[in-house]
Design a protein that fits this description.
159 residues, mainly alpha, three-stranded antiparallel sheet, two-stranded antiparallel ribbon, 8 helices, 5 strands, 54% helix, 11% strand, disordered N terminus
């Protein structure tokens, strides 16, 4: 099957499938690197694989756009994958999940979460996690930051 681009379809499909099985998501820069194409061409191919072929699902927006393999295809291609567990979660869902964990930890008297732990929970990058925490602190007066830098923790402190 020929794609409407100058990229051989088997090479793109194989490279994206191989990379997406190894890593739960792929972004435009990664697709460009593994297919040896420019980012605009790679983005076009990923969009084609999403819309015309139904292989991928898109997440995020703008520079944070990423693609993941559709659940049914991932399940057929890899026996041990967990696409629901491993995929990024939506912004509001991430805030709710982090807030819930912070409240549970506060009830048990455990320390809060670091930025690194929040990134592991949400699958966000460092900047997205920081932005989310700033937004959450503006919405919830009980959410406090203690410490600075890598040692900073975010805790739920009921007053």
């Amino acid at each position: 099957m020929a794609l409407p681009y100058n990229i051989p379809a088997p090479r793109v499909k194989h490279a994206c499938r191989k990379d997406t099985l190894r890593y739960p998501e792929i972004d435009t820069a990664t697709a460009a690197r593994i297919t040896q194409q420019g980012e605009p061409d790679a983005r076009d191919v990923l969009t084609h694989m999403e819309t015309a072929l139904g292989y991928l699902e898109r997440g995020g927006t703008g520079r944070g756009t990423y693609w993941i393999m559709r659940h049914n295809l991932h399940r057929r291609l890899s026996a041990s994958g967990h696409p629901e567990r491993d995929r990024r979660i939506a912004w509001e869902a991430a805030k709710t999940r982090v807030l819930s964990i912070l409240m549970d930890r506060a009830k048990r008297g455990e320390p809060g979460l670091t930025n690194k732990e929040i990134r592991q929970i949400t699958r966000f990058n460092r900047h997205q996690a920081t932005r989310m925490l700033l937004e959450m602190r503006g919405e919830n007066q009980e959410l406090k930051a203690t410490g600075h830098g890598a040692g900073a923790r975010y805790e739920w402190k009921k007053e």
